[in-house]
């Protein structure tokens, strides 16, 4: 997706956060879902924090947990990126497939997500 000046890994993190409750997620879970190593995720998170897109928030109940949380600016960028991603998906995937094949693709994606989502 063009127009955001961010690498895809950074956009992926923002999109995951905007879909999460309260725009936040434990950093270890976020790194795992984004398929990034601990060091790789730290670099991405550092860049996002420096750009005022996320902030690190310590858990109030578990000192081992730190959350990545969208800032107001991060929420704005994430929402615009989500709209762009939806438009690109419609134009380049769903419209060419048509309704029936789009439904079949959605079901296949749900099946894959369920089969590959580790239980916490």
UniProtKB/TrEMBL annotation:
Domain of life assignment: Bacteria
Domain HTH marR-type: 1-114
SUPFAM superfamilies attached to this UniProt entry: Winged helix' DNA-binding domain
Record InterPro entries: HTH_MarR-typ (IPR000835), MarR/SlyA-like (IPR039422), WH-like_DNA-bd_sf (IPR036388), WH_DNA-bd_sf (IPR036390)
Any single biological process term in GO: response to stress
A Pfam family hit: MarR_2
Single GO MF annotation: DNA-binding transcription factor activity
Protein known as: MarR family transcriptional regulator
Native source organism of the sequence: Saccharopolyspora aridisoli
Lineage: Bacteria, Bacillati, Actinomycetota, Actinomycetes, Pseudonocardiales
């Amino acid at each position: 997706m063009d127009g955001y000046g961010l690498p895809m890994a950074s956009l992926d993190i923002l999109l995951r956060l905007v879909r999460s409750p309260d725009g936040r997620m434990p950093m270890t879970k976020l790194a795992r879902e984004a398929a990034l190593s601990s060091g790789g995720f730290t670099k991405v998170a550092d860049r996002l924090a420096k750009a005022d897109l996320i902030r690190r928030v310590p858990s109030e109940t578990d000192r081992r947990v730190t959350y990545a949380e969208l800032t107001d600016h991060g929420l704005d960028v994430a929402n615009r990126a989500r709209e762009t991603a939806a438009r690109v998906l419609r134009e380049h995937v769903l419209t060419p497939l048509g309704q029936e094949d789009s439904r079949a693709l959605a079901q296949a994606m749900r099946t894959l997500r369920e089969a590959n989502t580790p239980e916490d």
